[in-house]
Design brief:
12 strands, five-stranded mixed β-sheet, 237 residues, 6 helices
């Protein structure tokens, strides 16, 4: 936890910040070994980053004297990530990884090789998604909460929503066997589509190309989704 993420409601009328979440209190005590007087990095959700001095730490919560909150968060990546819904355990890790890397727009999409049961996973509950996004922000010292949308129908999304997303953006989809290598060092806005571990079926590849996306690859190796996502984002930006 490289940043303690706060809501405005966590700061009282006297300007003191209160952390009552048991996970974060436990982390302060057991991992960081924080002591009274320790200065740590704080941030407001979707707001500024600063410092705070720990003035109390008990089982029920921690209190910080906020000294300043004036530094902006890191710049976001200029990408809208469309990710075929991974299996639940991989979804949790993927959300944390891409949030830490600076992705602010995430669409989870159904494709042919996505198991329908994945959509019933508790990991898709808004509370669980929020928890994973917060973990990614805490890791990266960021405060800008990503927007996550769920698209359970492939064809309507490709036909109705994707064209609008591609306006003024470059569209890329990663798929093994594509003739073009993934570009490097993009500075333009883009939409990146990543399929499930089994890849897209030929019909889906055709639909993505007809919508205006370019098919790209990152080499001969077949990677897990969470690895592929990280590799693609690092290469693109």
């Amino acid at each position: 936890m490289n940043l303690i993420l706060l809501d405005l409601m966590d700061i009282d009328a006297e300007g003191y910040a209160w952390v009552r979440d048991p996970r974060r209190v436990r982390h302060l005590r057991e991992v960081q070994g924080a002591e009274i007087g320790t200065e740590l990095t704080l941030g407001i959700v979707n707001g500024a980053i600063g410092r705070g001095r720990l003035i109390s730490l008990e089982e029920r919560g921690a209190c910080f004297d906020v000294t300043r909150l004036e530094m902006p968060p890191p710049a976001p990546l200029p990408v809208h990530l469309i990710l075929a819904l991974p299996r639940p355990r991989m979804l949790a890790r993927s959300l944390e990884h891409v949030t830490a890397l600076g992705v602010k727009h995430i669409t989870l999409l159904h494709t042919c090789r996505v198991e329908k049961s994945y959509w019933q996973s508790p990991e898709l509950a808004p509370r669980k998604i929020h928890e994973h996004l917060v973990l990614g922000l805490e890791q990266a010292r960021d405060t800008l909460l990503p927007e996550v949308t769920l698209e359970r129908r492939f064809k309507p999304f490709i036909e109705d929503s994707l064209p609008e997303l591609l306006q003024d953006r470059r569209g890329l989809f990663a798929h093994p066997g594509m003739p073009t290598a993934c570009p490097r060092g993009l500075t333009e806005e883009c939409v990146l589509v990543i399929g499930p571990e089994g890849g897209f079926i030929p019909y889906e590849v055709e639909c993505l190309m007809e919508a205006g996306c370019e098919g790209v690859h990152i080499g001969e190796r077949i990677l897990r989704v969470e690895t592929a996502v990280t590799a693609l984002l690092a290469r693109l930006f």
